[in-house]
Amino acid sequence: MKKTLIAILACMAAIVSPLSWAAPAFPDGPVHLVVPFPAGGPTDTLARMLAEGLQARWKQPVIVENKPGAGTLIGTDHVARAAPDGRTMGIVISAYTINPSVRRSMPYDTLADLQGITQLAESKLVLVTRADAPFNTVAELIARARRHPGELTYASPGAGTSTHLAGEMFKQAAGIDIVHVPYKGSGPAQTDLVGGQVDVMFDVLQSALPMVRSGRLKVIALASPQRDAAFPQYPTVAETLPGFEVGSMFGLIAPARTPAATVAAIRDAAAAVVHSKQVAQTMAGLGMTPVGSTPAEFNRFLRDEIEKWRKVAQQANVRID
């Protein structure tokens, strides 16, 4: 009997022991979400909604840290230097895939030091002009630019932004010469567009809509590959220039070498948050559409975007010191 009892206890110990040594559930402490912008903008708003949703799911603090500056490089570099344990992750926008091609100096290697977790959302870009501009379509704009090379201008909220590169991509696809005029933000650019100081501008659809609805701007075309079901009256640039596609993305990244299981756990939780009814509705008000791609899909998307912008920036000779 004694030997039998010892054998039973030994079997129980063999079963229980692995469980007692199992890795703790992720996360087992506070998580930091780095935003490379000041508080208050759309990216920060998305980050805070995500943090609140993740905190509710994980029952652990999710702390938003705003680290703005250097065209998102400061915040993203902080993530690149963090321990690869899933406890530090970062929000990125399209500048993440543009910076490697336009920055003369980078504090991190985008593909070697960081990895994608999921694309959280996307926003549509739209090509707009002032209401009384003498062209209404992409074809008419191209024809006018060809008749007056170097005379038309396009605005952007700053050199190296996605809307700046969208303008360069448009020039290359159409084979036209229009001059880039950078501003310090989309607000001043919109003001001068309405006033006629510049001729056209790629802008985030949701940002341009108030001026479109008030009659001060008009839409030439969307930069997305297909028409938007919510705005079926707006054609796409691709209907005139096949293959043209530019959007604004919002993604979630982690340091390289973060374990795949941890990355997968973060992705699943983040995707559930952005697709939740309340968050999705708030995002719609910001002009964002939830995505929630897998890590493999997002990393493939990032590589493709980096290569796309490399070609555009190289051909346009866009460099930022």
Description:
The chain has 321 residues and is an alpha/beta fold. It contains 12 helices and 10 strands. The protein has helices at residues 2-20, 42-58, 73-80, 95-102, 110-113, 138-147, 162-174, 186-195, 205-213, 260-274, 277-285, 295-316, and strands at residues 31-35, 62-66, 88-93, 114-130, 153-156, 179-182, 200-204, 217-222, 247-255, 288-290. Strand 1, helix 2 and strand 2 form a beta-alpha-beta unit. Helix 2 (42-58) crosses helix 10 (260-274). The longest helix has 22 residues, at 295-316. The protein is globular and about 65 Å long. Residues 12-22 have low confidence and may be disordered.
Secondary structure class reads: alpha/beta
Number of strands: 10
Radius of gyration: 24 Å
Which residue ranges are poorly predicted, with pLDDT under 50 across at least 5 consecutive positions? Answer: 12-22
Mean pLDDT: 92
- Report strand %: 15-25%
Largest sheet: 10 strands, mixed
Assign a percent range to the helix content: 40-55%
Listing every helix as H and every strand as E from the N terminus to the C terminus, the arrangement reads: HEHEHEHHEHEHEHEHEEHHEH
Q: Termini, distance in Å?
A: 81 Å
From the spread of the alpha carbons, the general shape counts as: globular
Number of separate helices: 12
Feature tags:
ten-stranded mixed beta sheet; 45% helix; 321 residues; alpha/beta; 12 helices
How do you describe this structure in short?
The protein is of the alpha/beta class and 321 residues long. It has helices at residues 2-20, 42-58, 73-80, 95-102, 110-113, 138-147, 162-174, 186-195, 205-213, 260-274, 277-285, 295-316; strands spanning 31-35, 62-66, 88-93, 114-130, 153-156, 179-182, 200-204, 217-222, 247-255, 288-290. Strands 1, 2, 3, 4, 5, 6, 7, 8, 9 and 10 form a ten-stranded mixed sheet that branches.
